[in-house]
Design a protein that fits this description.
4 strands, single chain, two-stranded antiparallel sheet, 4 helices, mainly alpha, two-stranded antiparallel ribbon
């Protein structure tokens, strides 16, 4: 409804249900407009279903891999040394070589650096602000791309 205005809303007859109400859209009340303008839920193709399942499977593989890395780690942020909480969050695991560019290195232990959420964000935005992680990333890059 309009507030702080000199125009006062008036009740009119809804074109859809015939009830006297405030008109919301195209001569209809709010309930009729929402009901009639609702979009149907999009159907997912078979190809789309297969892609969704593959992505779910990959995420599960990632979680298992991250648990292996976590078990072998000292559970501390590489940049600041802060103790990371248990159980581990997906935010703790930084790929030195990005997954999207190097999918073959996605599940390589040497490609993972444990970082606290603050430093992970910082590294993703500007790695120059995290000197220890930058040096390790360069070392990992040389080692894995030989």
């Amino acid at each position: 409804m309009l507030r702080n205005s000199t125009i006062q809303p008036k009740k009119k007859i809804c074109k859809s249900c015939g009830v006297s109400s405030y008109i919301f859209s195209r001569g209809r009340c709010q309930q009729c407009a929402r009901r009639e303008d609702a979009k149907p839920i999009a159907k997912v193709s078979e190809k789309g279903k297969i892609k969704r399942e593959a992505k779910k499977d990959l995420i599960e593989e990632d979680k298992l891999f991250y648990m292996e890395v976590w078990a072998a780690s000292n559970e501390r942020c590489y940049e600041c040394g802060r103790k990371l909480s248990n159980p581990p969050s997906l935010l703790y695991f930084h790929h030195a070589m990005p997954k999207r560019l190097f999918p073959a290195l996605r599940h390589v232990h040497e490609n993972i650096i444990l970082l606290c959420p603050d430093h992970h964000q910082q590294v993703e935005v500007n790695i120059d602000k995290a000197p220890r992680t930058k040096a390790l990333t360069e070392q990992i890059r040389k080692q894995l791309l030989q």
